[in-house]
Amino acid sequence: MHAYLTIPSSLDNRKLPMVLFVHGGPWARDYRGFDGYVQLLANRGYAVLQPNYRGSTGYGKKYLHAGDLQWGRAMQDDLTDAVKWAISEGIADPERIAIFGGSYGGYAALAGAAFTPDLYRCAVDLVGPSSLFTLLASFPPYWVPLVSLFKRRMGDPDKPSNRDMLTKASPLFSADRIRIPLLIAQGANDPRVTQVESEQIVAAIEQTAEPRSTGSIPMRVTGWSVLQTSSTSWREWKDSWPNIWADGTSRWRKNGCPVRQRLSGQLEADLLQPNLPDPSGRGRMATTRASKQGGAAAV
User: Fold this and answer.
1) CATH of the domain at 104
2) Taking a C-beta distance cutoff of 8 angstroms, is the pair 162, 185 a contact?
3) What total number of domains does the chain contain?
4) Which of 7, 154, 175, 196 matches a 20 to 30 Å C-alpha distance to 205?
5) Which pLDDT tens digit goes with each residue over 65-90?
6) pLDDT per residue as tens digits for the range 50-69
7) Nearest-CA neighbor of 288 among 38, 36, 78?
8) What's the pLDDT score for residue 103?
9) How far, in Å, CA of 244 to CA of 251, rounded?
10) The model's pTM
């Protein structure tokens, strides 16, 4: 398995806090090159690892189809292996690792929080499906030609042999195992991963007995460009939420109140033009470190 590793340019590259950034699709891949999310995180002092897990494109059909029926199984194991590799190489601090992604990457973040909660300090899910059953049931009409592809590669709920597999692969049904801080962002008008995917897992988490620190940011559609939240703002979120990864606590946790109850919509303009750091001011932009495997770290 190949992965891309980005490290802060001005820090000692040993035992860094690390973000496992999982690409969406899942039938897609990460490439070497500029990525705003990656550079922002590296600028803040985090190593960022982007694995092209099985099921990713660009590595041949055998590798692509190695991910068939492996959501939450071998595909998730690849992500676990990538984290363990970074720890064994001395790159990542095992006590300060987060999992982050959008769409399938958001699903993987939820799966990481539910299936391997001891591996991550926190998780960030952007429009990730929490139940593979409701994901398939909610596809818009123009996605009908793709439904057969999803059933073949993800699993078919109409087949009794697949139902138990899909249940076990759905983070919703393991929500009681989530005990790490979790941030969820969801598009209210997203036709592909609908709002119910986020609402149902937040509700399931809140029904558990153990208090948790959860947060949600409402969006109109998939993507950060139309975020809207309170005066807390995206800038404050992006600077404060990573602090959880460093010390395991959240200044948002007050009287057991989840973060989402503190959000009310305003200051959208502040989010449309986030105040990103000047590379020549606060710190240098990170550089992607390449190994001998053609620009990718071999995991």
Assistant:
1) 3.40.50.1820
2) no
3) 1
4) 154
5) 999 999 999 999 999 999 999 999 99
6) 999 999 999 999 999 999 99
7) 38
8) 93
9) 9
10) 0.76
